[in-house]
């Protein structure tokens, strides 16, 4: 199939350089404003396109795919997480799915550390004192946080991003612990000086900081449920730059309010943009609007990956970043 004949629909505005390159290569329909597509627009897109380029804000479920036209052959996701795409149904319908792994690893790991430090060192509280003009000068007991060096960091999900977090946290003098579906190879584990916990319960109970870095799948939904959250030390801090659904957000909010967990740094939420006001008002919580991978460089590289996946497919091969059911 010659690539110039392929019709590509991109569901969101992407960086200009990415859009320009896609336009050069394909017969493309681009979005003309910054809003996500409505369900009706998405339904229309899957009916007519050969290739769809969605983002995390598009729900590509079985019902939507049931209305897909016979031309739709590739969903080239702009992002690494594919929990918004029903990959199994796509496969049954002969539609390939690809993602953009690797290029947002470092940026997301950096943001994990930023949140970890923001919560433990009370950065937003300091910022607010300065912005409100309330600073009364240095005082020996003002805004004391906790030292991160020496603390135990438990990483839940030791894939690319988890390992990048481990490397950074080691440089801050933290002790690295992890729980993962599969134990890392001994040489990788040794390189990261990471201690493996087969039992998530036992790890949760012993950590000073818990960082969620696993994908959201049916088996990780509410992995940190109310029972497990209650195992955390009251002095412990939770950081999540992965997906909100991995944590029972209501249970976490109750515990944060009651002081049963010391704090949380969150970039993602269980119900997307709907962030509970209870969470918003807490001083021991730092909230960001899903910015983990939001660097100019990362967004361009994500675009390059999407283009490589589409071009390779158009040239008659499997996209290099094909996702198969159960892989993530
Ligand atoms: C992206 C992400 O910005 O790639 C992911 O899985 O969560 C984000 O950091 C987003 O997915 C873009 O679609």
Automatic annotation (TrEMBL):
Statement: the UniProt record of this protein carries the keyword Transmembrane helix: no
Name of a matching Pfam family: 2-Hacid_dh
Residue ranges occupied by any D-isomer specific 2-hydroxyacid dehydrogenase catalytic domain in the UniProt entry: 8-323
Domain of life of the organism encoding this protein: Bacteria
Enzyme Commission identifier(s): 1.1.1.29
GO cellular component, one term: cytosol
Domain D-isomer specific 2-hydroxyacid dehydrogenase NAD-binding, first and last residues per copy: 113-292
GO molecular function, one term: hydroxypyruvate reductase (NADH) activity
Family: Belongs to the D-isomer specific 2-hydroxyacid dehydrogenase family.
Organism: Planktotalea frisia
InterPro entries given in the database record: D-isomer_2-hydroxyacid_DH, D-isomer_2_OHA_DH_cat_dom, D-isomer_DH_CS, D-isomer_DH_CS1, D-isomer_DH_NAD-bd, NAD(P)-bd_dom_sf
Enzyme class: oxidoreductase
CDD domains per record: GDH
Listed name of the protein: Glycerate dehydrogenase
Keywords on record: NAD, Oxidoreductase
């Amino acid at each position: 199939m010659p690539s110039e004949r392929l019709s590509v629909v991109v569901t969101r505005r992407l960086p200009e350089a990415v859009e320009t390159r896609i336009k050069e290569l394909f017969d493309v329909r681009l979005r003309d404003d910054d809003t996500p597509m409505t369900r009706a627009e998405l339904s229309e897109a899957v009916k007519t396109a050969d290739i769809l380029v969605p983002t995390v804000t598009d729900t590509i479920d079985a019902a939507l795919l049931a209305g897909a036209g016979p031309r739709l052959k590739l969903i080239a996701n702009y992002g690494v997480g594919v929990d918004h795409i029903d990959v199994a149904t796509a496969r049954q319908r002969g539609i390939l799915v690809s993602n953009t792994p690797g290029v947002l690893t470092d940026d997301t790991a950096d943001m994990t550390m930023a949140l970890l430090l923001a919560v433990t060192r009370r950065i937003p509280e300091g910022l607010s004192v300065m912005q409100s003009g309330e600073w009364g000068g240095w005082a020996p007991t003002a805004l004391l946080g906790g030292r991160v060096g020496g603390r135990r960091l438990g990483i839940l999900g030791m894939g690319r991003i988890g390992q990048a977090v481990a490397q950074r946290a080691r440089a801050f003098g933290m002790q690295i612990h992890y729980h993962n579906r599969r134990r890392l190879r001994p040489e990788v584990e040794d390189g990261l000086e990471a201690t493996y916990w087969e039992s998530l319960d036992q790890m949760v109970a012993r950590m000073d900081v818990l960082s969620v870095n696993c994908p959201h799948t049916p088996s990780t939904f509410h992995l940190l449920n109310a029972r497990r959250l209650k195992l955390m030390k009251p002095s412990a801090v939770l950081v999540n730059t992965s997906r909100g659904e991995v944590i029972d957000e209501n249970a976490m909010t109750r515990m944060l309010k009651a002081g049963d967990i010391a704090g949380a740094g969150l970039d993602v939420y269980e119900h997307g943009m709907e962030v509970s006001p209870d969470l918003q008002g807490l001083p021991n919580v730092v909230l960001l609007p899903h910015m983990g991978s939001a660097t100019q460089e990362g967004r361009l590289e994500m675009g390059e990956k999407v283009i490589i996946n589409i071009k390779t497919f158009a040239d008659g091969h499997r996209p290099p970043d094909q996702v198969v059911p159960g892989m993530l």
